[in-house]
Structures are given as C-alpha cells and as structure tokens.
C-alpha cells in the first residue's frame, strides 16, 4: 500500500511546489520631450534598467537598415530626434534580451507652420530630461485568472495521473 501512494506523492512533490522563475522580460516606454526628441526607457520587468543596451531605430517604411544606432545610458534611457513623421520602429537588445516597439512621430512643428523649430540631428544626445515614466506600460505577465487556470490544469493533470496509476492492473 505505501508503494501505491509513493508515486502520486513524489509527482506532487516534484511538480506541485512552485519555484521562483529566474527569467525576466523587457519593458519599453517612450515619451516625447521637446523639439521632436523622443526618450526611450528600457527596463527589465523587475525594474532594473537595461544599462548599455544596443538600440537600433528603423525609419518609417524601411525595417531593413537602421537609421539611428546607439546604446542606452546607466538608467536605460536613450534619446533620438525624428527627422520625419511616421511610425519609427525601436529595437533594444542586451545579452539575449530584447524588445521592439513602434514610436509614432507626429508631423514636426516646422512642417505644420506654427512654430519653426531647429532641424533635429540624427544622433543620440543625452539631455537633462526629468525622470518621469509614461502612463502606458507594456507589462508582460499573466493575469490572476490565467495563473489560476494554469495551476488548476496542472493539479488536475497530476490527480488524473495519480488516479490512473493507483487503479491497479485488471486481471
């Protein structure tokens, strides 16, 4: 009899105890600053900044060759000036971790005709921007409902397997 209980208990001990996962995701945020300069904030979902991560920015309509390249600073920030309107694709990579996002750039003020602003450069220029974060955050994770369904599925699978093994052989 103890042998029949050993298998289900061993399976439950092996698969039923949650362990912390050592993986993490990447969160990218963007917000416009002054004169068509956009700040990109790259952090891990643990809150740690992606220091010195590689940044490649692709112009609208050309996702093959980046127009702007650079690295993030120690706080995971990167600034770029968009010379034209459109959807710019931003890619941030560091040691196998990375994320892509689209930054929608409105028509520059000089093209609208209201205020004439100087022509932006294509270099990454650190600027003293206040460390504020955008309200829109792209967090990747599971909702409590999804977590509950997954846990229930695993438990149901373990119980079913234990019952199958415990039924014995028919003769």
TrEMBL record:
<feature type="region of interest" description="Disordered">
    <location>
        <begin position="109"/>
        <end position="144"/>
    </location>
</feature>
<protein>
    <recommendedName>
        <fullName>Carboxypeptidase regulatory-like domain-containing protein</fullName>
    </recommendedName>
</protein>
């Amino acid at each position: 009899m103890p042998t029949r209980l050993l298998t289900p208990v061993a399976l439950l001990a092996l698969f039923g105890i949650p362990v912390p996962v050592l993986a993490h995701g990447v969160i990218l945020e963007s917000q416009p600053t002054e004169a068509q300069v956009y700040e990109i904030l790259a952090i891990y979902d643990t809150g740690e900044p992606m220091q010195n991560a590689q940044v490649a920015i692709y112009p609208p309509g050309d996702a093959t060759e980046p127009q702007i390249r650079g690295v993030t600073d120690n706080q995971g920030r990167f600034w770029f000036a968009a010379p034209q309107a459109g959807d710019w694709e931003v890619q941030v990579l560091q040691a196998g971790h990375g994320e892509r996002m689209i930054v929608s750039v409105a028509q520059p003020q000089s093209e609208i005709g209201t205020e004439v602003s100087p022509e932006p450069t294509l270099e990454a220029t650190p600027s003293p921007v206040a460390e504020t974060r955008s309200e829109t955050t792209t967090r990747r994770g599971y909702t409590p409902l999804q977590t509950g369904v997954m846990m229930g599925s695993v438990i149901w699978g373990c119980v079913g397997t234990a019952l199958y093994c415990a039924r014995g052989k028919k003769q």
